[in-house]
Amino acid sequence: MADEAKAKGNAAFSAGDYTDAIRHFTDAINLAPTNHVLYSNRSAAYASLNQFSEALTDAKKTVDLKPDWSKGYSRLGAAHHGLRQYDDAVSAYKKGLEVDPNNETLKSGLTDAQSAAAASRSRDSARGGPANNLFGDAFGPDMLAKLTADPSTRMFMQQPDFVNMMMDLQRNPSNLNLYLKDQRVMQALSVLLNVKMQSPSGSGFGDDVEMPDSPPKERKRPAYEAEPVKEKKREPEPEPEPELMDDEEREVKERKAQAQKEKEAGNAAYKKKDFDTAIEHYTKAIELDDCDISFLTNRAAVYLEMAKYDECIKDCEKAVERGRELRSDYKMVARALTRKGTALVKMAKTSKDYEPAIETFQKALTEHRNPDTLKKLNDAERAKKELEQQEYYDPELAEKEREKGNEYFKEQKYPDAIRHYTEALRRNPKDPKAYSNRAACYTKLGAMPEGLKDAEKCIEIDPKFSKGYTRKGAIQFFMKEFDKALETYQEGLKHDPQNPELLEGVRSCVQQINRASRGDLTPDELKERQAKAMQDPEIQNILTDPVMAQVLKDLQENPKAAQDHMKNPSVMNKIQKLISAGIVQMR
Questions:
Q1: For residue 452, how far is the Cα from the chain centroid?
Q2: CATH assignment, 263-392
Q3: Which site in 91, 234, 391, 475 is 20 to 30 Å from 542, CA atoms measured?
Q4: pTM
Q5: CA-based nearest residue to 240, from 185, 158, 144, 181
Q6: 51 to 25, 29, 45, 48, 284: CA distances (angstroms)
Q7: Architecture, CATH, for domain 528-587
Q8: For 420-518, CATH number?
């Protein structure tokens, strides 16, 4: 139950529904309060909603439960960072790296926390004067949004070097002097401060800023003085600078492009069934770019074709883990899980081996309900059940269980007898005797539908087994379906013409049918038989047949026409059924 709630929480988290994810993770925690992974997952969900206090509480619980798990410290550091407790965040990441020194997530988190801590200290020291306070406020959390929204700075946001400068100023406003010679920065300040900025002079930027509501530097001209007309010179518009890209970004872009080429080469080799070459190309793609899990799932597909199932499963598990870290498309994660489940099915040798495959398919469906995955799940469940039956099959033990059932039957302990007959059928589901014997037990207990079902199964397994017909006929007789019982006994006589039980069954059915035709039934018997017959679909069809309606009318009003109808075997058979049911009486 906890795993099911956890899977639902993971699915909601992947879909971006963090509130629902928290609810499911909470349900899972209530069921498994010592599972550190559940607290870690809920901490991530809280952090995604900016509820960092709750995220911190869960992160601390994660570390308490599993001090040697690096991801717990990653959650702890992220929560402290969200609360702007940068020194605590640095401490958390450092502790995590003591556990897992090569963890890239912890290294990245530590770098960010250290930068944030340094920027925070710089802001605190830089905001001593009014002007510095003003500039510090300009580089607030909505800085990039303001610059993107304003037409005069929007194009700058497409230039990486400009974005890097503004991000540096956001972290440390005291670095402004480093960028004052860049006209783009001056224009950005104009937008962020909502003032007109002049080019910097040698005296420093403080003298060139016109503060809002500041006193004018020159006397305003009286209203009656005409302002001298000055010819305005149209300054040429600056040409947009080409998009700049630092060496690191250029290298990343080139590596991603090369990785895609390797993937395409791998796909081409896969189609040609040149699996070794495909593996080489996909491996190179993974080395070049570890942020695209399709390289892993593609290589897993090749391993699956090569019957290298352990390698396939390893790649799928890595794709799922990496996909969670990168918040990849849930369909890609589902594909990796489905491929892993397929490999597990290929490896299955016993019914128990199917259990992890079935669980994996179920997890894949929580990510994305794909029809192909659903079919694979159904096939795996069916194969598991069939293998269980094969593993349990033992005719010798089945015969011993049937004999135990016979002993309890003789002692009239019918429930105990049914238990042993059922076990006998589990050991050998093709034994008609066990079905026949269990049908007899059900009859003794008055469970006629169950007994009828077993008798029919007995006949299905061995159509020449007379006992099956006597069991079925007896049950139908007890249910007062005399015409059906008669058909069953007659069918049995085709295989065993001299069987005394079948012959006696025919005689008893004919006797009961004749009683109805002669009108020998008591009012209560007639009423009961008619009520039961009206529930029979076959009787209902006969009574609603327009042809039979005319036949019944002729039986009452036109004897000559009725005699002609009786010459038709089909009509005669239907009339006989109505008589047996007590619906029609012949006087």
A1: 41
A2: 1.25.40.10
A3: 475
A4: 0.42
A5: 158
A6: 15, 19, 9, 7, 40
A7: Orthogonal Bundle (1.10)
A8: 1.25.40.10
